[in-house]
UniProtKB/TrEMBL annotation:
The chain crosses the membrane at residues 56-78, 90-113, 151-172. It comes from Octactis speculum. Keywords: Membrane, Transmembrane, Transmembrane helix. It comes from the Eukaryota. The keyword Transmembrane helix applies. This is Uncharacterized protein. The keyword Transmembrane helix applies.
Length: 203
């Protein structure tokens, strides 16, 4: 059966979200516990100050896995939706989109701070004293700044996807219920009242 327009939009956003989150996961794994410079600073405290904190790296990995699970479940749920699942579908997408939006904003702040720090270090001269330790000369790690920048852009894209999902549900909620009712073999005359009922359940 040909998917309804709202299903096509939600499936498309789900696929985009899945691809972005997988890419974000790969970059998060790369950035985990990575030193800003090569070779790494040595010594208690210094080795932790001059690399991406393990907690920051893990937060990126876990948030990426969280989004992957959400997008995968969304792609599984949308084609199987029925009228009795309408409150679940609306509540799931609106609630999870709100939660994920907060997670994504928090991740953007974290990796934005890393971007700012690495960018400032990258602007220093290669002969700056901060890149010397006990006779060893260090340099900024190639590709790290670009990786962090890419992660922030992907987070912004994922946030945009979450906002678009809520907009689709808000604008098309009556059409969605109408399509679900039609798939079940019901009458369109009940759509308006059912839309109000489902909206009331969500609120």
């Amino acid at each position: 059966m040909k998917p309804c327009p709202w299903q096509t939009v939600l499936i498309t956003t789900g696929v985009v979200e899945l691809l972005l989150s997988i890419s974000y996961l790969v970059d998060s794994i790369f950035a985990y516990d990575t030193c800003y410079v090569v070779p790494c600073y040595e010594g208690p405290g210094l080795e932790e100050l001059w690399k991406i904190n393990k907690g920051v790296g893990l937060s990126g990995v876990f948030s990426a896995v969280f989004v992957i699970i959400f997008s995968a479940f969304s792609l599984w749920l949308i084609p199987r939706s029925s009228l009795k699942d309408a409150p679940l579908m609306f509540g799931f997408f609106v609630g999870m989109s709100f939660i994920l939006s907060l997670v994504l904003i928090e991740q953007m702040c974290i990796w934005g701070a890393e971007w700012n720090l690495i960018d400032n270090l990258d602007k220093l001269s290669d002969f700056s004293s901060v890149f010397s330790q006990s006779g060893r000369h260090m340099k900024m790690r190639d590709g790290l700044l670009e990786t962090v920048q890419r992660m922030v852009y992907m987070l912004a894209g994922l946030l945009l996807v979450q906002v678009s999902i809520v907009i689709v549900l808000a604008l098309w909620h009556r059409e969605i219920l109408a399509d679900l009712l039609w798939l079940r073999g019901g009458s369109y005359t009940r759509v308006v009242s059912m839309a109000d009922d489902v909206t009331g359940v969500i609120v």
